[in-house]
Design goal:
Layout (H helix, E strand, L loop, with lengths): L12 H4 L9 E3 L2 E3 L7 H9 L3 H6 L14 H5 L1 H19 L5 E7 L4 E2 L4 E10 L4 E9 L8 E5 L5 E9 L4 E13 L3 E11 L1
Parallel strand pairs: 4-10
Antiparallel strand pairs: 1-2, 3-5, 5-8, 6-7, 6-9, 9-10
């Protein structure tokens, strides 16, 4: 090798020539990765329209509607149990607050014949029901102008008859034609009455 043919100030053309305008691209997961001092306008447009990993993950792709969250399968497992619970509560509510007792008939009877001196009349009211549970609300009215306080009688399921008594005591001499009236206020208004005679003297 001749030393005169070599000069340190002379550089090969590959040292000062600029890079090739468009180097060979590399592929990374299907996308083109470009090198160089700049990116062409076409490549910039493609990059702007290419969804990022964050957009794909959050469902915010350009021009697409937001993705609806998926319903958890764990929550769906409890749906049958919740339905069974609702049915059980509805059944209990129906038994406690459902159709109540209905009154079919009301009769009142008084002692036969005359009531003697200082006697007590046992007036009996019979309320016939449909056998459902509930509460009867009622009061007694007497022909002497008196009235009892509101009274209640609870009937249980399967009981189709309620027997309500009024004890009316008389004292002294005289004659009185007495009337005892049962006034049923609930579950439906009903009235029934009976008469008897008190005589002493």
């Amino acid at each position: 090798m001749n030393d005169d043919a070599y000069s340190a100030t002379e550089l090969g053309s590959h040292w000062f020539e600029g890079p090739t305008p468009d180097p060979t691209p590399e592929r990374v997961e299907g996308d083109v990765l470009r090198f160089g001092p700049g990116v062409t306008a076409a490549a910039a447009r493609r990059a702007a329209n290419t969804p990022t990993a964050a957009q794909i993950w959050h469902g915010t792709l350009p021009g697409s509607a937001p993705a609806r969250p998926r319903r958890s399968r764990r929550a769906l497992r409890y749906v049958p149990a919740a339905l069974i619970l609702l049915v059980a509560l509805a059944l209990l509510d129906w038994r406690a607050y459902g159709p109540r007792v209905a009154v079919r008939d009301v009769t009142v009877t008084a002692p036969e014949g005359r009531l003697g001196c200082d006697g007590t009349a046992d007036v009996l009211a019979v309320v016939r029901t449909d056998g459902r549970p509930g509460t009867l609300t009622y009061h007694w009215e007497r022909s002497d102008g008196t009235r009892s306080a509101p009274l209640r009688e609870t009937v249980t399921r399967g009981r189709e008859e309620a027997r309500l008594h009024l004890l009316w005591t008389f004292e002294g001499r005289g004659t009185h034609h007495a009337t005892a009236r049962l006034v049923l206020t609930s579950p439906a208004p009903r009235t029934a009455e009976a008469t008897f005679t008190y005589r002493c003297g």
